[in-house]
Design goal:
About 80% of the residues lie in helices and about 0% in strands. With about 80 residues, the chain is mainly α.
């Protein structure tokens, strides 16, 4: 009787360990799939280029304001 109970416990523990390993493998796969999705969708090169252009336009405005206020700036390309 004790042999049967211990054999059933061994099978149940084995099934639990196998299920745990399968669940961890699935979570690992889903994590990397989500990581790839985020990398592809949230910041692509077109968005980065648009942000760069906006920052350059803002820098140009700041240089022009500094020129009108006669504040010395490192770039002299906006000087009249």
């Amino acid at each position: 009787m004790e042999a049967q109970i211990s054999q059933i416990l061994v099978y149940l523990i084995g099934a639990f360990v196998l299920g745990l390993v399968a669940a961890l493998a699935k979570l690992w796969h889903d994590f990397y799939a989500h990581k790839l999705h985020v990398a592809e969708r949230y910041m692509n090169s077109e968005d980065a280029e648009e942000i760069k252009q906006d920052l350059r336009a803002l820098r140009d405005v700041v240089y022009r304001v500094a020129d009108k206020l006669e504040v010395p700036v490192f770039s002299e390309r906006y000087r009249n």
